Each structure stands twice: as C-alpha cells, then as structure tokens.
Amino acid sequence: MNADFHYYATYCVAIIAGYSHEESQDIAYGSQFTDCCSRTYLEKIGGPVSAATTQLSLEMMEARGDIPTLNDITRIWASFHFLPGDLYAKRKWCTKRYLNRYRLICKPNGKLLTDTVELARGKGPQAAGIAMHIMADTWAHQNFAGIPSLVVNNTNYYFYEIVGEGEEAFERPVRFNHNPATKDDLEKGNYTNTVFQGIERSVMNLGHGRCGHLPDYSFARYRYMPAWANYKEIIKDNPSDYLHAFAQMVYALKCLRSENDRFETDTYDMEAIEPWKDRIWEILTRRQLDASKDWKDLGEELSGCKIEAFDRDKYYKEYMDAGGDDQDDTYLGKYILAALAQKSMVTNRIFSSGNLLAGFSIDYEKVGLKGIRDYYRLARKRGEGR
Q1: If I label 53, which of 22, 41, 84, 113 is the partner at 20 to 30 A Cα–Cα?
Q2: Where along the chain do its domains lie?
Q3: Taking the mean position of all CA atoms in its chain, how far away is CA 66?
Q4: Is pLDDT of 147 > 60?
Q5: In this structure, are strands 175-177 and 170-173 parallel, antiparallel, or unpaired?
C-alpha cells in the first residue's frame, strides 16, 4: 500500500474507532513511518539499526547475496510488509527448502496477525500504527513473500487488468516496463515492475516486485499466474480486499482500546463503517495514482480537524534533543522499541517453526542477553516492566 492508505486512510480508521484527532494522527504517523524507518535514517539519528522497518532502493542495490544479508532482508520484509499467513502450511511433493519459502507467503488472517495486534496492546500509538501498517499490507501484499525468491514471487507474461465494474468492465493486457523513473500510466495500462532475474535469490524477486505497484493501488483488479501456484490463474480484487482491510483495522483498534476484547482474525466492523461505506468504496475504486486528497477530505469531515501532511522528520528534533536513555520516552524512541519487539516476535516465530530463512532467534528471557546488541534496549525496558 501507499501513503494514501497507510497515513490518511489509517487516520480515518482511527477516528471511526473512537480515537481523538491527536491520537489518530500519531497512529497514522506510526503506520506511514514504517515505510520510512530505514537503516540509513536510524544511522542519521544514532538509533539501533536493527529497528529498521524498511530498506531504501540504494540499500537494496548494495545488498549482497550471502546468507546473513538475505536473513536481514527477510526479517525486515516478513515482519512489517509481508507477514506470513501460515508458518506450518503443508504442500505435497516439494522439498523442505522450497517449503520454507512457501510458508513465508503473506496472507490475511494468519496467526501471526493476532500476535502482532496483541503485541501492540498497551504500547501506545507507535505500536498501534505499526500493527495497522502490517494488517493493511496482509491484504494488499497477499500471495507474495518478504524474501527474494524466484520460485515463489515470480509471475509470467499472462497478466490482465480488469477495468471498470459491472457491464462496463473490460479486460486488457498489462504492459510492464522496467524503468523505475517512469510513472505508471493508468489510461494506457502501462506499469513498472522489476527486471526478470533467473537467479533464485536476486532482490529483483523480492515481494511483489514482479507485479509492480498493482498490489498497492486500491482500484486495481487483475488476473495473473504466480510461480508458487504453478502458474495457475489467480484473480486479485483490490477494492474488496482494501474494504475488508479498512473494516478489520477499525475492529483491531477498538480491541486495542479495550482491556477485555482480544483480537480475533476474520472479524470486520462493517457496522461501524456503514455510514461512510459508499464514500469509502468510491475512494477505493477511483482510478488514480494517489488517493491522499480523497482520504484527507474524508478524515477532516469525520474529525472536524485539519490533518497535518506527513513529515518524516516531525519527531526528529524531540528525539535528538532528549539524548541518552530519555530518548526511549520520545515518540521515535517508543517507535523504535515497538519495531524491535515486532521484528523479534516474527523472527522468533519463524525460527521456532524450524525455518532458518530469517536467521536464528534467541529467547533472552531464557538464556540472558546474548545476540544482537541493539535488542539490549528492548530487553532492559521489558525488565523495567514497560
């Protein structure tokens, strides 16, 4: 998903869920910042680089194909953008090596989604925002995995976009190009995707790169043949998926406000969004590269307040001025702790399933402070009961 949904639509979700304007802005900021918190940014502020929730294009270009680098890529993308749907999925007649990749395919309503939401409970708007970003992406990024893998993420030439609805709908072949500087042309059906690489672990085969930005557009409907399905046709209906994501996010944020309501998968608060459902559907189905203005207008109508434009450095000065341990009590400090907790949880779940693609995971509560030093801060805070 793009900033229009991760920031402005998430603000709308929070308002409908009963949060204040200020709380909703902070949740929306945490959601969108998940696409900004790179290792480069963390080095800039002197933060722990293991808290990175995304990777810049330049960082990806410099990535090597060795095991530690691939583990690092998987920890980031599987934890925050392609949450695995079933770490114990079964499939006949395949090797364990393939099965480990197959089990990292992102799906909505997996057990890890419950773990993600419950992990955010009581941790503030930063953790709630991270959870909303991940939840939204389980709908947009489903059927792709947060690992470089040709045998999972590749698609073939068979790619058709479904334009319009009802009797006016028609299909046309999608034409892909590989120039990242080229804007997608919605009128002509020209889109950008990654260059085909026959190397299994090429970063060009990470996530939905071979599908371009189509999963990130709420209006997009298309049919294609993914590698993991043995190139059998799949139809993706983004408007319906995004509507379910919106309603599930409302339900999840309501759960986080309640001490007694544990989050359950496959539950959607359609009743809460009913007064605005037609308006939401209109925004979701409008063919446009950026729906930020539409979501912003809706959000401001819902709250009666002006929504600030997203500013990546909004909390930069607060963090830098705090210094030392006081930084942990700033917005960015709490975000970093929430990101470390989420990445640690997902990595541990993957490792515990017998899958080493995200690397090794150490349970510090059992064996003490061993492993990556960046996590000492998280361990210390948990030890203080925070």
Answers
A1: 22
A2: 3-147+242-383, 150-238
A3: 25
A4: yes
A5: unpaired
